[in-house]
Specification:
Blueprint lengths: L11 H10 L3 E3 L6 H5 L12 E4 L3 H13 L4 E4 L13 E4 L6 E4 L4 E5 L4 H9 L15 H6 L8 H4 L6 E7 L5 E4 L5 H10 L5 E8 L5 E10 L3 H13 L5 E9 L14 E9 L3 H7 L1 H5 L5 E2 L2 E4 L4 H4 L8 E8 L4 H11 L9 E6 L21 E8 L2 H17 L19 H4 L2 H14 L18 H7 L1
Parallel strand pairs: 2-4, 3-4
Antiparallel strand pairs: 1-2, 5-6, 6-9, 7-8, 7-9, 10-12, 10-13, 10-14, 11-12, 11-16, 15-17, 16-17
Helix pairs in contact: 8-12, 12-13
This protein binds flavin-adenine dinucleotide.
Flavin-adenine dinucleotide binds next to strand 3, helix 5 and strand 9.
């Protein structure tokens, strides 16, 4: 019998044939398990794909891509669903939760991770070898999506650089259904473009990432009450203005609702959270962060010597799925006037519904470029400003308006680009890449995905047009 949810041009026989090739599972909209497989960490990202292939291995990914190409259907890929994109329905979604293997090569200081691995698993595996990856703030974020979007580590980034710059190999299924092994020496242009171009060029099945000899750090978080917001933000400018690459600090204005999921001390109140990570001795760290000790009394202070595996204590990100919208921008500088703008728009007296407004310090190795570096377009930035609003659509809509107004007011200090991992649902490739880099990426896209098969669930890079077509469009 034909599944009534499939569209007329896809025959049930073809779907059955695909299902019979898979080690993993296939779901169509009427199937039990379909909704659970499509569910994302961001509960506002509930796609309604025509088919879901819950891949168990690279052969499943190849079969799904070939099926989609044969039926003229676009392909999307999701690991955890942390990042919001415009909702889509008529497409094939490949989910990678079933591909979570992590192998450490201690001698080469690398980890080979499958497409569905999350950071918590890699950190734990690397720990046993006395090593650490360039992971993000949250253990639940997917490795591949994070790395292909740049990869800003809140502990190691300023010292070692973008995670996308420390990838030695990528296995990817391209639009022709081929599994390609990419390195500096094998298809180097595609290898570079993937690292920042995300799922625009194919579905990664595994990658090899760099590890670093780090087993501990000094840091944690200091929380302050609302009345100290402006003073703490100015102290933050002071600290980061003199920070060596070993010190990373960020600051967040937290506007948590009165719900049981939030720790009692922070529930239903506005607080300021300074996050600190230092690769060195406690005594040296304390000298560097001294302004945070004197600016105001701490409400909560968790700073201290930490094993690297306690990295999540720095940001204390939420771990449960929630509905949210996010927006971000990149700043070249953070003068006092920019801080005052942030306080006026999202501070305790602003009436802003934004749940978290975060400023992270970049620079150091994150500002460096080198031959073979990835296409991450945030090297000239010195700060990210990112906001997320959690709640029903009317609340997130109001939060989005506040964030848009804030970003417009911050424009005098902005680089004009958006950091891909902190981008909103509406962000486009034009917002992320400089025009000449985007043109190059579009030419690579044309070579590997001329029909733009990989156009959902990403910041799409359209294939370059032929000169004749381009002229006709003008
Ligand atoms: C709580 C939280 C903390 C975060 N902390 C940081 C941080 O410290 N630093 C930072 O840089 N970012 C951070 N992020 C942003 C995060 O890196 C991005 O949201 C990233 O896209 C998440 O990847 P994912 O695989 O978990 O999410 P998904 O939504 O599953 O994937 C995001 C996108 O990545 C691409 N992708 C995923 N898998 C593949 C694949 N196999 N092949 C090709 N493309 C693929 C696709 O385009 C997909 O749409 C954070 C996000 C949250 C919600």
């Amino acid at each position: 019998m034909t599944d009534p949810h499939l569209c007329a041009d896809i025959h049930q026989d073809a779907v059955d044939a695909l299902a019979s090739q898979l080690t993993g599972s296939l779901f169509t909209p009427g199937d039990p398990g379909y909704t659970a497989e499509a569910v994302a960490f961001n509960l506002r990202s509930q796609h309604r794909p025509l088919l879901i292939v819950a891949a168990a291995d690279h052969a499943d990914v190849r079969a799904a891509v070939r099926f989609a190409a044969a039926h003229g259907l676009p392909v999307g890929v999701m690991a955890t669903g942390h990042q919001p994109f415009p909702l889509a329905d008529r497409f094939v979604l490949i989910t990678t939760r079933g591909m979570g293997a992590v192998e450490i090569d201690a001698a080469r200081r690398t980890a080979r991770v499958e497409a569905g691995a999350v950071w918590g698993d890699v950190v734990e595996a690397a720990r046993t070898a006395g090593l650490a990856p360039l992971n993000g703030s949250s253990p639940g974020v997917g490795v591949v999506g994070y790395v292909l979007g740049g990869g800003l580590s809140p502990v190691l980034g300023r010292k070692y650089g973008w995670a996308a710059d420390h990838v030695s190999a990528i296995d990817v299924v391209t639009a022709d259904g081929q599994l390609r092994h990419l390195t500096e020496d094998s298809e180097p242009e595609l290898f570079r473009s993937m690292r920042g171009g995300r799922s625009n060029f194919g579905v990664v099945t595994s990658m090899e990432i760099g590890l670093f000899p780090v087993t501990s750090f000094y840091g944690g978080g200091i929380f302050y009450t609302a009345e100290h917001t402006a003073a703490v933000l100015h102290a933050y400018r002071d600290v980061v203005g003199r920070a060596p690459d070993e010190l990373t600090c960020s600051v967040a204005l937290l506007n948590f609702p009165p719900v049981p999921e939030v720790p009692e001390m922070l529930r239903g109140r506005f607080t300021v959270h300074v996050r600190i990570a230092f690769l060195g001795e406690a005594e040296e760290a304390e000298k560097l962060i001294a302004p945070f000790r004197t600016v105001a009394p701490a409400l909560i202070d968790t700073t201290g010597e930490q094993p690297y595996s306690a990295f999540a204590a720095v940001h204390q990100d939420p771990t449960d799925p929630a509905p949210y919208e996010e927006q971000g921008t990149l700043l070249a500088t953070l003068p006092g006037a920019a801080v005052d703008t942030v306080v006026a728009r999202t501070g305790p007296h602003s009436g802003s519904p934004v749940t978290v407004l975060e400023i992270r310090h970049l620079g150091g190795a994150l500002g460096e470029s080198h031959v073979g570096a990835s296409v991450v377009a945030a090297r000239e930035a010195r700060f990210t400003v990112w906001g997320a609003t959690v709640g029903p659509p009317e609340v997130t809509g109001a939060g989005t308006e506040v964030m848009e107004a804030l970003m417009a007011e911050l424009r005098p200090w902005a680089t004009g680009r958006t950091y891909q991992n902190f981008a909103s649902r509406e962000t486009t490739a034009d917002d992320i890449f400089a025009p000449e880099e985007l043109e190059r990426l579009r030419r690579i896209k044309k070579l590997y995905d001329p029909a733009n098969l990989f156009r959902v669930n990403n910041h799409n890079i359209a294939p370059a047009m032929d000169p004749v077509t381009a002229d006709a469009e003008r």
